[in-house]
Design goal:
about 190 residues
């Protein structure tokens, strides 16, 4: 399945989500169309599975922050800033933002999508767990998600390292405010 998912992501990155066909994915995966129709109910199911697996992978990578680690209360901010950068610079997000921006936002903002559920679960597990089981956790998680999305889903043309750092800093400050933390973390 990994080869097929990678081929699916490659196809999305090349053509955008609406112009991806089974024939193109099969060619990239060095497979045939019958294989796809035996294993997935429709091309949309394959796109959903491939993009959800990739979102989970990216969010997992975001948890691996480089040293030095910030204080524990600021670690969630570092996770979200890293996840936003990884998504912002991801080739599939770039293609989707260029070709289908409304679909990209709706996938995460509409509460009935699996992408929203994945992002929500990740945030409540790694960013707002100290508020577990409360209305406050839902409110803060929604604020964090809504704050981070523009930073995560609007890729820059060709960012310099200074621009990347500036965007990360702005997002970090906004997240500190959402989480009720001082605007900067002590080192």
């Amino acid at each position: 399945m990994g080869t097929v998912y990678r081929a699916t992501l490659d196809a999305i990155a090349l053509r955008g989500p609406r112009r991806v066909g089974v024939t193109h994915i099969a060619r990239l995966a060095d497979s045939n169309r019958q294989y796809f129709y035996r294993n997935w109910a429709s091309p949309q199911v394959l796109l959903r599975e491939a993009t959800l697996q990739e979102l989970n992978r990216v969010l997992h990578v975001a948890l691996q922050v480089p040293d030095p680690l910030p204080p524990p209360e600021c670690l969630g901010v570092r996770f979200v800033v890293r996840a936003a950068r990884l998504l912002r610079e991801h080739r599939v997000v770039g293609a989707m933002a260029r070709t289908e921006p409304a679909m990209t936002y709706a996938a995460v903002l509409r509460t009935d999508t699996e992408w929203h559920g994945t992002a929500w679960e990740w945030l409540t597990s790694h960013v707002t767990p100290h508020l577990r089981g409360s209305t406050e956790q839902d409110r803060v998680t929604l604020a964090v998600l809504t704050t981070a999305l523009p930073y995560a889903l609007i890729p820059p043309e060709e960012p310099s390292e200074a621009e990347r750092a500036a965007v990360d800093s702005r997002l970090g400050q906004a997240l500190h405010a959402c989480l009720g933390l001082p605007l900067t973390c002590p080192d």
